[in-house]
Predict the structure of LysR family transcriptional regulator.
Amino acid sequence: MEYQRIKYFLKAAKTQNFSKAAKEMYISPQALTKQISLLEEELGVKLFERSTRNVHLTELGVLAENKFGQIDKELKLAVSEIRKAGEVLTGKVRVGIFSALPKEEFITPILTLILANVPNSHIELKMMELFDIQKDMMEGKLDLAFTNAHEEEDWGSCHKLVFHTVPAQIVVSLYHPWAVKDEITEEDMKKETFLKMDHNAPYKKEVGNDGFYYHIPCREVVTVPNFITLLTMLSQAEGFAVFPKAFHDSHTAKFKYFDVPGKDFRFQTACFYHKDSPNPNITPILQLIRDEFNVREADFHGECCEI
């Protein structure tokens, strides 16, 4: 019995629509129908009741979906575990880096340190957006993540080494009317659009609904999907944002920064990692970072420090 045939069946069972299932499996409806018929012949049972408008599972079709679904999940899990074991044996270290971090001051020294001192490891490097790097880290798709995060973010069971902490600031383009001001008041903010990163995205969670970003005074809130879009809209003077100057390196000359009136909110540049990682290269890399950047031993338990 071909496994691909079972996958076609599971997709058809899920969608209850052969045309839709075929489209999602990148085959023709006729080819999918033929594969389902061959599976029914192999099993000696009827899996679907068909009509001119739709299809639905028979009683035995429901049983087949449950049994084959369990097998499919177990197979995917087995493949994932084997791949992870292979990565450990080959010394692969999957590293995600927030693409807007300062390259000369931060990214280059970190990578040079790792590559020079852990020669047996294979570094798989990804330059990523904020949301993607947090999602992949929490799903176990990364071993290390170098990024910025604010104090109210929930990173689950991940631990972190903190390189530095900086305050959040109001950011506007030099073409914005506020650029001639020396400071910004809450009344100013209430008359302008707040450009906010989409903190409702998966894995981008703030602790509670009373977080800093829930109470920024503004005329309206416009959510943006990623940091590049945020910078573009800021450059066009479409509103103001709130993040630290340390979030990026090559764009600072285009913007002006102000203290947030009446607020004290900080961001951290940190290395996130899984304390229980089976990868033998993670511990020596963290040790290198601790020694090179004078990070205290307590930071291996997720505490913060300044270096």
